[in-house]
Amino acid sequence: MRIHPEGKPYILAPAALSAALGVLGWRKTAATTALLAAGVAYFFRDPERRPPYRRDVVVSPADGKIIVLKRTFEPRWLKREAWEIGIFMSVLDVHINRAPISGTLEALEHQPGLTLPAYHTDAVSRNERCYYYLHREDQQPVLMVQIAGAIARRTVPFVAAGDAFQRGERIGMIRFGSRVELYLPLEAEPLVTLGHKVHAGETPLALWPQD
Questions:
Q1: What CATH code would you report for 57-207?
Q2: Pick from 76, 136, 150: which is nearest to 109 by CA?
Q3: Which of 4, 31, 67, 203 is least buried, going by the fewest C-beta atoms within 10 A?
Q4: 60 counts as catalytic
């Protein structure tokens, strides 16, 4: 199982403590600490993913469950009516976020905020979050938002403004449970429903033709 480098400091500390406790003869405590290290390693797992072949497919940027699917006005980047697709990630889901489309990152914007549970309606507008202002290859705008939750308290981008990427590439993560919102133009046709289980970089979220 591949572990993302972001997780190494969080895994090595309890692993080292477990080893030290074992040397001291505190076997039960050492075993508990070792289980903690294994649990953290599981959280930071980073499996390989294969996006669909079709270029007109928008893939999920996150693992988790669809909790929002609606038309809304998006004022920051698209500045028009758009599809909002919200994905809730539990602590058991893979937390590596992937590019939903092939294109470029125009800008990142981090906004401090609260730590309401990520499934809470107000989390989208009040929690700590990071905006990814994306352009598809044909310059169509897409907005992705990482939202921290009650346990997840840090958004971690892997990309910077000006970077180009392919659909399904790793572009960020959120530590320890959270949510991702994706805003697509109405020309896109959603392929998921509420409650749908999705996987980052693989599950088709929408069909969106391009020239």
A1: 2.70.70.10
A2: 76
A3: 31
A4: no
